Fold each of these.
Amino acid sequence: MTFTTDRFTNPTSTFDIVSSTLATFKRLSTDDQLGLLWVLYENMGGAITPAAPGAARLQLAAGLLERVKSMSFQEQLQVQRDLADKVETPETRAYGVLSNNNKLAFWFQLGEWMRSGEAVPVPANYKLSLDANRVFDQIARLEFNQQITILRQAVVNMGIDPLA
């Protein structure tokens, strides 16, 4: 699937569109959110690299990433669900103190490992649910910076910030 670059000239409209799409994303089930993140990674992964890992200090997330990588696939999936559901665990608390760029880089690295088989893979026959596919279609119609903003905000809002 190819993303289009519809341009919106009214900043308020752009903000509203991003906010509305993000709100729709948050209403998805946990597994639909995770599935949509995977599909977005598959479609935007190459473009995320300069936007996240290049700008982030991934070593700050390295301990958490290695801890997740050492888990069974079922445990890895549970960590992802706990992050999305904001369940308080040592992993979600460690994630919560990461910077916004490091949170995006965390998911990017997890996606890389999922692709290589080092982390729980998405089933080969996986298809987005109807609701998740609608959100994907909304995101696909946005310009790249809006897409990255939605992706960043989706992962920034996950986990537990122990300092809050």
Amino acid sequence: MNEPLAYPLISLTKKYLSFFAKETLALKIDRYHYILMLIDDNHENLTQKAIGDLLHLDKSYMVNIIDYLSSNGYVFREKNPIDRRQQLIRLTDLARQDVPFIKNVYSELNKKSFNNLSRAEIDIFNKVIAVIQDNLADSQPNEIHLEIKKK
């Protein structure tokens, strides 16, 4: 129990994202794939602020993310017809083409990750992760951003 919990989690994350990066080399983007999935899963009804709130990211960081996705042809901002002060983040045709591929890569990667584990073990893993997140929810950590880029 002396090893910081972060080390095996970071190691796992590196392996997971390395596999993901290898499988998605053909895409025009090398990060923020999950945000495209969130937008798609929410039927393109999320504002930049709503995405930031879901991911616990500050406004300025979200601006950079949306600018990156926009400059690579994956999203665009559109005034919300219900509240003109807001901008909805919409997917482009390129994003709509690539999102099913991204979802499939994540699905296959999850299958590979959970290979040789029973449904009960996977459920326990997910429960443990949720409990750890809840245990740390009260702390006020310094905000950090991890950016994994393809080499």
Amino acid sequence: MDRTADILIPPETSWLADPDSQAVCAVLTRAGFRALFVGGCVRNALLGRADSDIDIATDALPEKVMDLAAAAGLKAVPTGIDHGTVTVVAGGKPFEITTFRRDVETDGRRAVVAFSTDIAEDARRRDFTMNALYATPDGRVVDPLGGLPDLHARRIRFIENADARIKEDYLRTLRFFRFFAWYGDAQAGFDAEALDAITQNLRGLETLSAERVGAEMRKFLAAPDPAFALAGMRQTGALGVILPGADDRLVGLVVDFEERLGLHPDWQTRLLALGGQDVVRRLRLSRAEAKALQTLMDALEQMTSAEEVAYRHGQDAGVSLLLMRAALAEAPPDADALDGLRRAAEAIFPVKAADLMPVFEGPALGAQLATLERAWIASRFTASKEDLLSRL
């Protein structure tokens, strides 16, 4: 029997009030099947957080979902039909509908599933209690496993047996710390059973692909303040497995300085502060991400000014360097520095090659332009074209 909680999703919640999401649910319920919003969208609505992905669970088999959607004139795409997922498009928006499932076999990376009509079985194959919450189309919360108290306490707890949940998918170790960074209560600390299970299953992290680890770490480091969760990750040994040589001690300072300057969290700045060996390969960074990281590492080593980095690589790069230097010095940056970085990013070198010709040509022309540009940067971008040419 369902455990329907005496609680409602706020009626103004966008996905609950959306006529398109309601239309998709009605396709199922009119035919006698269940349609339940599930997971992140329910969790975030109850916490008053920004919308998460809208997922719908049902007891209808995938082929039946396809047939019902087609009969209602809606486009249905079998995006993951072998695993029970059909994407139904309504009002130009995609909605993922997944049949209730139970795990038949897992190997730490993927699962073999069987379809089910039991919502409790579907809930048990999820990771954390706060993610095993459902809501009916009229907003009534369904809590098959009693996860609401954990949600309200901001307690990140694995469903039933932490060791078993981790062995089903070792990425859940990283998800535990990521969810703690986003939703956990640092004052209450970590769930002891979870930490013990994580410590006992560290070797499983070595089986994960770099793509999965990298995607998880991007989300983790983008949390408003991941410092406490990173410290826990280090203490369990998980951080050392996925990023050998990483040191989380500077991340807290970077976060503090971001907040003081009114900056949005930036996962790449936090990654720079975290460091580690072979970061590009271990997190499978894109070429652009790897280039940006190397640019900042070179600037730190060569003592390049943040303003020069902003001029050459953009304001965001200059801000990252400013924060990193401040963290290393353990001294907050001057708020006025942000204006300087903005001006530097917008600055345009006033001297053109034509201004130096025909006196200078070939390599000599390039060398002279570089010399004048360095002088212009040293003037904090204030020297005029006339001032610079007068130095010739």
Amino acid sequence: MMSFFNILEKNRIAAVVIMILAVSTGLMAEECSTMPACENTSQPAEAETYSAPPAVAPEALKILNRLEQAGDQYKTLRANVEYLVEDKMTGDEEFRTGWIAYQKETENQPGKFRVSFEQLTLGKGRPTTSKQDYLFDGQWLTTAKHRIKEFRKIQVAAEGEKIDAMKIGKGPFPVPFGQKTDDVVKYLEPSTRPNQKGDPKNSSYLKFVPRKGQGKDVNFVRLDMWVDNETNLPVKIQSKDASKKVTTVTFKDIQPKSTLQPELFIMTKPAGWDLIVEPLK
């Protein structure tokens, strides 16, 4: 079958979309999937634990614990989002605005998310309408690109299968959010600092870098994050990858515990659009 990593590599925005939801709500299944990156799931729980996580400064540890608790607390969320990618090698910039909606998995249904980008600005140009929609229902990732009238459905998991794409050291797209604090500090070195001018209001700062020998298990070389002191949800993240691209995601008008209409998580192909279906192989 096509790995989740391969799917994300084909579409950078889709990868960031999933990261957005992981950051915002702790998008994480209870079990690891059967994809190659999720091996040895039959091992006893003791094999996945360790008694002596690396030392972390108490101030950073408190923020990590708040993030872990927030991942369990919020079942639904809606927010406006700003997404900026800066290519430091070429000077190119891509800036998108839109909104996100998320519904955490329950006993009866998988976790779902919807992200809708509505405007695009390239470099110093003017904003233009450029609608792109992304919907993940736990089994299929559906993308709708309005400009080229393309509707694509990518099967990520078999029916009834749970995927754990975000788990550090196990999933193919790991991020340090919505996870156990001990799991985060095993792979990443977190640190904090006092607030500085320009930081989001009423927020706490965290910086993450991969620990020595753990770079293969994360998809960034540095990640900065600002966590709201009231909701304990990230309000801004900034990541730098090995190709020196810097991605900044900012959340505004965050509405945790929102009442979400079921139709938010339904997307149908408009008449006349191209349909591309990529089932599991």
